[in-house]
Design goal:
The chain has about 130 residues and is of the alpha+beta class. The chain has one domain: Ribosomal protein S6/Translation elongation factor EF1B (Alpha-Beta Plaits, 2-Layer Sandwich). About 20% of the residues lie in helices and about 35% in strands. The chain is built from two helices and four strands; from the N terminus they run E-H-E-E-H-E. The radius of gyration is 18 Å and the shape is globular. The mean pLDDT is about 85.
Length: about 130
């Protein structure tokens, strides 16, 4: 009996300041890398533009995507490297699903926090007097 490749989750945060064509190309490049390595995409959810809990690269929000895929473990290192140097990728996380892991939700998780506005010098608290 052939061993099934593991199931992975890829949570991908793309810069909302990047052009639509660039974000589309990033997603298609990820799909091509997965299928090119002999893997298969099991699920692809677009969670839309959402605020981040804190600013990353001076951006308060990002476009969220969830991809579930099966692939050989050798792809993960290559995929991680490529996403780490790709312009337009704010953050990403690849997670290996263990047996018994519940399935992904049918809809995007609720928004629970927003990124705080940057503090300016005029709004900062004064230093205590001695």
């Amino acid at each position: 009996m052939a061993k099934q490749p593991p199931l992975y989750d890829l949570v991908l945060l793309l810069a909302t300041t990047a052009p639509d064509e660039q974000r589309t190309k990033i997603l298609s490049d990820v799909e091509a890398a997965i299928t090119g390595a002999g893997g298969s995409i099991e699920r692809q959810d677009e969670w839309g533009q959402r605020p981040m809990a804190y600013r990353i690269q001076h951006q308060p929000d990002a476009e969220y995507h969830l991809l579930q895929f099966k692939s050989p473990p050798t792809l993960i290192e290559t995929l991680t490297h490529d996403l780490g140097i790709t312009d337009g990728v704010v953050r990403f996380r690849v997670i290996k699903n263990l047996p018994g892991t519940p399935p992904a939700p049918d809809s995007a998780p609720p928004v629970v926090a927003t990124a705080a506005a940057p503090a300016t010098g005029a709004e900062s608290t004064p230093e205590p007097e001695h």
